[in-house]
């Protein structure tokens, strides 16, 4: 939880803050909560699809191949852990 409080101050967080119109100082927790609550249904109906498009255009959206590979890796880790425990 403490790490998430530092996020707006890091370079990635600062980029997101600028994209959302917060310029200059990093917004505080109260401001961020008020901003989120003001989004209301716009987040679900407008912003979520935009985030998905943004992630897809940056090739950061998990596709089925990637997801399948992650499931295989997780399964192998669990199997190895179980074998080591026995």
């Amino acid at each position: 939880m403490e790490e998430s409080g530092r996020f707006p101050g890091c370079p990635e967080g600062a980029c997101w803050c600028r994209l959302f119109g917060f310029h200059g100082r990093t917004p505080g927790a109260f401001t961020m909560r008020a901003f989120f609550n003001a989004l209301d249904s716009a987040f679900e109906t407008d912003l979520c699809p935009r985030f998905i498009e943004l992630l897809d255009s940056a090739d950061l959206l998990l596709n089925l191949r990637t997801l399948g590979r992650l499931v295989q890796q997780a399964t192998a880790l669990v199997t190895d852990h179980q074998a080591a425990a026995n």
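Residues 2-85 form one domain. The longest helix spans residues 64-85.
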